[in-house]
Amino acid sequence: MAYLGNPGRTIAVLEKYNFNFRKNFGQNFLIDDHILTKIVDAAGITDEDCVLEIGPGIGTMTQYLCERARKVIAVEIDNSLIPILNDTLSEYDNVTIINKDILKVDIAALAEEYNEGRPIKVVANLPYYITTPIVMGLFESLVPLESITVMVQKEVAERMQTGPGSKDYGALSLSVAFYSKAEVIAVVSPNCFIPKPKVESSVIRMTLHKQKPVEVKDETFLFAIIRASFQQRRKTLINGLSNAGLPGVTKEDVRNALIQMGKPETVRGETFTLEEFATLANLLYRE
Ligand code: SAM
């Protein structure tokens, strides 16, 4: 039974092992049964699923996942948590604990080994200091993925889900839109964690597109254009892109592309939709 989603039982485990929180690993453990159930429900875990949990901590959410999934792979960097996980997860035979930095794990190989290469689901209360590298790494690698349901800092969830015109709109929003359909599931108070984080959190679910929403000649070039457009937000696209050192892209090329798109010379990247960035990238791309 999943028994850890409760402050008293979590504190008892921490005391039993004399556990010291490591701030540099972003350790804020969930203690709220309602939120834990909501995350696992939102991820739509069934007994056919293979789930990757990033950062299981003392195994709280892992217990909920083990109750529902066929297989759970839990990757934890902090070796002082491994004996605790072996204890709190001892009643489950469908979990594999891996003591590694998630950024150095070959996740595609795990999907191959534990799910015959079929798409896996990622569920996590993420360590906030590496949210973007984890999420972008998952998107950009060749990992077969069905969905990513994660707790992140509330502001980051807003950046992930927003569109043109908002101050939060940027390269992260466009990457998330390119790869997935994102929905914020819940806003979570600091009171739901031990220790309490200084910020509010959100649970966001990103369901990967079966087919990309835009067609581009070269994805790497699209993202080079997007990053360059937001590097200096206050600059016009013409200035931002022609100063970015993109191979073969001159100021004249950008001006001509904007004319073809019916856009004024003064336009800024923050007003462009994903479709418009795709059109611009295709116009500027040289084989
Ligand atoms: N899942 C637990 C929960 O909800 O109570 C803990 C979540 S806590 C926010 C983040 C967890 O990620 C911690 O256990 C931390 O040690 C682990 N972690 C931090 N950096 C990591 C990394 N690079 N690779 C794997 N795990 C990491």
Structure description:
With 287 residues, the chain is of the alpha/beta class. It contains twelve helices and nine strands. The chain has helices spanning 7-16, 33-42, 60-68, 82-88, 107-115, 131-140, 154-161, 171-179, 219-231, 237-242, 251-260, 274-284, and strands spanning 29-30, 50-54, 71-75, 95-98, 120-125, 145-153, 180-188, 193-194, 201-208. The strands form two sheets. The protein has a seven-stranded mixed beta sheet, with helices on both faces. The chain has a two-stranded antiparallel ribbon with strand order 1-8. Helix 3 links the parallel strand 2 (50-54) and strand 3. The structure holds S-adenosylmethionine (SAM).
Question: Any key phrases for this structure?
Answer:
287 residues; binds S-adenosylmethionine; 2 domains; elongated; Rossmann fold; 12 helices; single chain; two-stranded antiparallel sheet; Helicase, Ruva Protein, domain 3; seven-stranded mixed beta sheet; alpha/beta
User: In whole angstroms, how far apart are the ends?
Assistant: 57 Å
Mean pLDDT: 96
- Strand fraction band? 15-25%
Give the helix proportion (percent range).
25-40%
Spatial order of the strands forming the largest sheet:
4-3-2-5-6-9-7
Question: Structural class given helices, strands, pairing?
Answer: alpha/beta
Main sheet record: 7 strands, mixed
Radius of gyration: 21 Å
Unique bound compounds: S-adenosylmethionine
CATH architecture descriptor of the largest domain: 3-Layer(aba) Sandwich
* Model regions low in confidence, pLDDT < 50 over at least 5 residues: none
Q: What general outline do the C-alpha atoms trace?
A: elongated
Specify the oligomeric state.
Answer: single chain
SSE string, helices as H and strands as E: HEHEHEHEHEHEHHEEEHHHH
